[in-house]
């Protein structure tokens, strides 16, 4: 997909607007992220030091096609920051 980490890309967000004619969907540039290289986006904007939230893990679980991966994500979402399963 991206062979050159210095290739410039633009992050787009899918916007959906309800109109009398139905739902209109369109892509537009992310309002807070500039056009930049993959290298810049990963070094300046991606936070890998903070664990993902439970809500984010559950969101990812909704999109996986694999039952085992879905179960793992759902189990991770149940754990607190110390690794204990929430009840």
From TrEMBL:
Might you give the EC number(s) for this enzyme? 1.14.13.39
* Keywords linked to the UniProt accession: Calmodulin-binding, FAD, Flavoprotein, FMN, Heme, Iron, Metal-binding, NADP, Oxidoreductase
EC top class, as a word? oxidoreductase
Any one GO MF annotation of this record: metal ion binding
Q: Name one Pfam family in it.
A: FAD_binding_1
Cofactor(s) recorded for this entry are:
heme b; FMN; FAD
Task: Report the residue ranges that make up the Sulfite reductase [NADPH] flavoprotein alpha-component-like FAD-binding domain in this protein.
Answer: 10-79
By its UniProt entry, which InterPro entries does this protein fall under? CysJ-like_FAD-binding, NADPH_Cyt_P450_Rdtase_alpha, NOS, Riboflavin_synthase-like_b-brl
Q: Identify the Gene3D superfamilies for this entry.
A: NADPH-cytochrome p450 Reductase, Chain A, domain 3 (1.20.990.10)
Q: Which SUPFAM superfamilies match?
A: Riboflavin synthase domain-like (SSF63380)
Q: What family does this chain come from, according to its entry?
A: Belongs to the NOS family.
What is the protein name given in its UniProt record? nitric-oxide synthase (NADPH)
Origin species, per record, is Armadillidium nasatum
Q: Which gene encodes it?
A: NOS_1
């Amino acid at each position: 997909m991206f062979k050159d980490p210095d290739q410039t890309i633009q992050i787009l967000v899918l916007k959906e607007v309800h109109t009398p004619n139905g739902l209109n969907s369109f892509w537009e540039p992310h309002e807070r992220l500039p056009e930049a290289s993959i290298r810049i986006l990963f070094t300046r904007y991606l936070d890998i030091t903070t664990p993902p939230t439970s809500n984010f893990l559950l969101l990812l679980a909704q999109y996986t096609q694999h039952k085992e991966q879905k179960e793992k994500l759902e189990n991770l979402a149940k754990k607190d920051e110390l690794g204990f399963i929430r009840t």
